[in-house]
Each structure stands twice: as structure tokens, then as C-alpha cells.
């Protein structure tokens, strides 16, 4: 089948990549994601509200296998993980799109914009890639502007202040129900800033979807108790 020299070379490189890989979830060798860990990133939706009250649906909690896979996608360039993660995101997106369709209200999936420095470092935009792997098309209505401190480690108020004024909308917004999309939601400050920016340009933001949500204290305790009981 791989008779062409280039095809054979590609096949050898892919095989070498797989042999050198370790499972993103558990570290098992010779696989990017083992079957057991693949089961661990199936959609287990949860809902929450941002500080301004915007409804956010997340495909799974940002913990355990899911958090390790997302970090490998974001920090280590392992874009093959976008496919199973995108499938989980797609289940949640499908529910949102179907609900709006019943209202005869077309949905536009708007990714949270990636900074230029992050794009240069990775070579891809994580939210956009996940939307595509979910089988949909990202509508890039937002652009990141300026340099901001890393959100990690900041409390809710500091996060909101850090992202204030960090985005601008493109000139032509148009109609439709806008659903914001990001890889991880923590406090919801970034979603709130994106919604504020778009609404200021006349857009109608109806909700947000994240691949994963950082568990809150009560959720962490509940998850820990469930794990101990198994």
C-alpha cells in the first residue's frame, strides 16, 4: 500500500511518533491516548454562570485525565488529542445548536481569541482547532489586543481586571445567536469580557461553551468522595 517512497517515509515517521509517544492520560508507552483514558474524556456536561450571569456549558471537569490531555494539547503541541477532545466538545455544541434551531435562531460559534504570542508559540489557536474537530466552523469575530498577565493564579476579581479591554470586535458583526467557545473556563471572567465586547458592537450573545470547567471547591469535594467510594 505504501509503495511510493514519500508515502513510505511518512509511514515510518508516523510509526516512530507513535512508538515514542506516551498516553496523555496515564503515561502508558507507545500510544497518544490509550483506550481507558479515551473513555475518561467522554462528555460529562456541567453548567455554571459567569459573574455577570452568562450561562456556560462545559463538556467535562478540568481534572484528572481531561486536564492532562488539555495541557498536552496546549503546551506540548500534541494536536492529535484535539480529535477526541473535540468530539466531547461537539456533543455539548450540538445540544446548544439544536436548542437554538428550535427557535429558528441560527448559531454562530465564536472562539475566545488567542494572543499573537501564544499563536506564534503553538502555530494554532486551541479554541478554533477544537471547534473544527467538533465538526463545526469557528466564526472569528473577536481579536485579542495588548499583552496581559497570565490568568493562572489570579482570583476572580483580578482575572476580571486583567482581561478588561483585552479584546476588540471585527467591524462587521451581522446577526445570529452568538455562542462563545473556549477550551477551559475558571471564573468566567474571559467569557464576560468577550460578551461585553461583542454586545458593545451590537451582537447578541446567548451563552458560552467550554471544553472543560475548573471544579469549584464543592465539586472537588464531591468528586473526591465519589472516587473514594469506588
Folded structure, characterized:
By secondary structure, the protein is an alpha/beta fold. The chain has two domains: 1-39, no CATH class; 42-229, Rossmann fold (3-Layer(aba) Sandwich), CATH 3.40.50. 44% of the residues lie in helices and 18% in strands. It has nine helices and seven strands, in the order ααββααβααβαββαβα. Strands 1-2-7-6-3 form a five-stranded mixed sheet. Strands 4-5 form a two-stranded antiparallel sheet. Helix 8 (189-200) links the parallel strand 6 (177-185) and strand 7. The longest helix has 21 residues, at 82-102. The model is unreliable at 221-230 (pLDDT under 50).
Number of strands: 7
Mass-distribution shape: globular
Helix content: 40-55%
Task: Give the mean pLDDT.
Answer: 84
Query: What's the CATH topology name of the largest domain?
Result: Rossmann fold
The level-1 CATH class of the largest domain: Alpha Beta
Biggest beta sheet summary: 5 strands, mixed
